[in-house]
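U., I forgot to send this yesterday:
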Amino acid sequence: MSVAQLTDTHIVREGTTYFGIDTAQYLADAIDAVNALALPPDYAVITGDIANFGSAAEYARFREIMTALQVPYFVIPGNHDDRDRMRAALPPHTYGGSTDARVRYAVDEFAIRLVGLDENFLRPWPGALLDRDSAAWLERTLAARRDSPTIVAVHQPPFRTGLHYLDVGGFLGRRRLRRIVDRHPQVSRVISGHIHCVRSAQWKGATAISAPSTAPQVLPLLFMEGKVLGIRHEPPGFSLHALAPDATVTTAVYRRDDSGSYNPVDARNMRRSAHGTV
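Result:
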């Protein structure tokens, strides 16, 4: 079985665009591509920045677009999202019925267990924080199902990505998160979004990896995390996390080409263009 990951959809109100990009259409196209996979995933997870401004109208539009997806989906919020408006607009099962101050839940009914963890904070700047309460919750949740292959989903990558302008806020408590994951070998993927491109870090037994945005992006080319050398155009895409025979999880990244088709990216090309590994 497999899990589709869509992220950073940045849906805006109808009649507007996100920096000139029709993010709603790109999300609809990504959903069509997921539906057309030869082996459809068992479910999908959207790892944050669902709406661009966190408005009720944006979430209503997102919910309408997602009705085309032929498998169940689950969400965690990103730094652009409003937790209360997201919960009000989306069916409770999509966020595990979570009523905590931060959205956190586990989905146990599939071969790959999903643990969704909202680690966002917005002040004094957008960043991520795994505090002691969330860490204790995660430890208990993972300990409850040690034999289930597991994906932990967060919004912001819990490692330094090399994108200085996004690393400034950082992920506070990322070492704490890594120590928890290292104690639970059933976790082989920690998936995220936020940076709109693919970056990864290898932990003890798990790979922490981000996914591309469902909409095209322009990202800076940086040197030593300080100097902008140019720009790189990142095509839209999504990730597919599949259960391997040894009960670990592998990842493939699908990119949209100029014809509008989505195809898996060769790992060697991904390392060169996006510094990612699968």
